[in-house]
Amino acid sequence: xxxxxxxxxxxxxxxxxxxxxxxxxxxxxxxxxxxxxxxxxxxxxxxxxxxxxxxxxxxxxxxxxxxxxxxxxxxxxxxxxxxxxxxxxxxxxxxxxxxxxxxxxxxxxxxxxxxxxxxxxxxxxxxxxxxxxxxxxxxxxxxxxxxxxxxxxxxxxxxxxxxxxxxxxxxxxxxxxxxxxxxxxxxxxxxxxxxxxxxxxxxxxxxxxxxxxxxxxxxxxxxxxxxxxx
Length: 230
Hints:
Largest sheet: none
Distance between the termini: 12 Å
Strand content: under 5%
Oligomer: single chain
Number of strands: 0
Number of domains: 2
Order of helices and strands: HHHHHHHH
């Protein structure tokens, strides 16, 4: 029995795109790693760039295995490809379950990490400067108690003239009442929604890759058996 050529080249194209996606992810993550604005406070809560680099490398390796396995009709490469996809799929499911269960623990972890910077008056100037930048960017003030974290409320805590009426987090004194820790948690929750959507899409792609790789694996096996018998 011959290997289905249409399926073979569809699988090759799938893995070529898979490999290109890995290159793009790796390139973007390295760019972010090199050019990322250094901020000690935000780095405490958003350490995901290194993980993106690892994901990019893994996807590139898998894409290479799949391409070679399809073109060379190599059962060993196809089997390795299937096993790796299965492992990633299981890890993805486990991570999703743990993420859903441990969401509150992550929030507590962020709060705990931010608490170590109190009192703000005892922090070095570089940490204070980072917090100033964060307050301006996220429209927040302080880390735990809001404006109460500061002995003297800095200008970065003060609302602009437009925010005073439009933003409910802007207090009557013209100072943001929402803490930067709460803002970081809000950002994390929005990111988690995006991540879950991406994870779902990746899971579908993984299932598609596993099904085709197994079909090709079986077809190549039957072809080899027929050749040996003949």
